[in-house]
Specification:
The protein has about 375 residues and is an alpha+beta fold. The protein folds into two domains: about 240 residues, 3-Layer(aba) Sandwich (Aminopeptidase); about 90 residues, Elongation Factor Tu (Ef-tu), domain 3, CATH 2.40.30.40. The protein contains eleven helices and 17 strands. The strands form three sheets. Strands 1-2-12-3-13-16-14-15 form an eight-stranded mixed beta sheet, sandwiched between helices. α9 links the parallel β14 and β15.
């Protein structure tokens, strides 16, 4: 009997531990809503409406600038001023030509991987709503041997929206309409999820989640959570928002490569595992005192982290944040992601949740007069 009771208690404890790790259900629903709402660079307006509505209850100020960046501010008179940046735009395409048969030809927005583009379903954002389609290419049976070996060029691909000729297609879609590949949010084993656009709507999600976690907590810092735009085409939204924030400290949130899959040379890419914690970057783009405080915070909060290196400026919002005005003490937190820049990106909800928890605790530790001079 004693052994049976002990086993029962252990099972209950294990179930409680699993349950405690689960993401806040409302926050998870918001993540799903974010990634399934199209927002190619320059066309982020619909997603930003979701962000504004999400953060409004937790902020003293919510505003949007002329670029489309959304700012949620806590404790506006606080010190130091800290900027948290996650970009809400995703890779996609823009319509540039419709042929006589009603097929659409497009230009990529951001770094689209054309090797996985063929036969993907797409959503095109028009003034009358979403138009569905499929990205087509000559069938493999009709290709010669050389064509089968080639990565397609963008001009070899087209979008079929079912239109019967150019006239009908132009009634449905206009030049300059933008779109994205469509893959639904799907939960896998071990709290792992797959979806389009985790790069980098998960960064926007972390910003909103930090504001939720800080709600009603007394903090000394002014925390400015920014959902930035147009990162995929040159860090453009972060450049303007970093200038207007005029922050002392800035943390960028982005994805990085999970290298725990076959065929990756870890000598070149490093070793980063999905589910083993957020990544804290170190290097020229990172203020060393910000790095130290992030590591100290992770240790205090008992959050497992992975240390990553960056020998130069990174391809993230942290790059322009560091160079804003007279300089910003910058850090970079990333979540390891598999299958980057494809329609099916994979990450761990546990990594995502812990990244937000780490960043919220970091903000709570900031005090007036904190010196980040190296």
């Amino acid at each position: 009997m004693e052994k049976t009771l002990r086993e029962k208690i252990l099972r209950q404890s294990a179930r409680s531990a699993v349950k405690s790790k689960r993401m806040n259900p409302d926050s998870k629903n918001f993540l799903k809503e974010l990634v399934e709402t199209p927002s190619p660079s320059g066309y982020e307006q619909t997603v930003q409406k979701l962000v504004r509505a999400r953060i409004a209850p937790w902020c003293d100020e919510v505003r949007t600038d002329v670029m489309g960046n959304v700012f949620g501010v806590r404790n506006p008179e606080g010190k130091p001023r800290v900027m948290l940046a996650g970009h809400c735009d995703q890779i996609g395409f823009i319509v540039r030509y419709i042929n006589d048969d009603g097929f659409l030809y497009v230009e990529p927005i951001g770094g689209v991987d054309l090797t996985v583009a063929t036969a993907q379903r797409v959503s095109i954002m028009t003034k009358d709503g979403i138009i569905p389609g499929v990205l087509g290419r000559k069938a493999i049976h009709l290709m010669d041997e050389d064509d089968r070996k080639k990565v397609p060029k963008i001009e070899d691909l087209y979008i079929d929206i079912g239109a019967d000729g150019k006239k009908e297609a132009k009634k449905m879609v206009e030049m300059g309409d933008a779109g994205v590949f469509v893959q639904p949010y799907t939960e896998l084993a071990n709290d792992r999820v797959v979806s389009m656009a985790f790069d980098n709507k998960m960064g926007t999600w972390i910003v909103t989640e930090v504001l939720r976690l800080l709600h009603k907590k007394k903090i000394d810092a002014c925390v400015m959570g920014v959902s930035t735009v147009q990162e995929e085409i040159g860090l453009r939204g972060a450049q303007t928002s970093a200038f207007s924030c005029d922050a002392d400290v800035g943390i960028a949130l982005d994805v990085s490569h999970g290298t725990d899959t076959p065929g990756i040379d870890k000598r070149k890419a490093g070793e980063f595992k999905v589910g083993k914690g957020p990544m804290i970057y170190r290097g020229a783009n990172i203020n060393p005192r910000v790095f130290d405080l992030l590591v100290e915070t992770a240790d205090a909060e008992k959050i497992d982290v992975q240390i990553a290196s960056a020998a130069r400026g990174t391809g993230t919002d942290a790059n322009v944040m560091q160079l804003a005005r007279g300089g910003m003490a910058t850090g970079l937190l990333s979540v390891p992601l598999r299958y980057l820049h494809t329609p099916n990106e994979l990450l761990s909800l546990d990594d995502l949740k812990n990244c937000a928890k780490l960043l919220a605790a970091f903000c709570e530790r900031l005090k007036p007069g904190h010196d980040f001079t190296p």
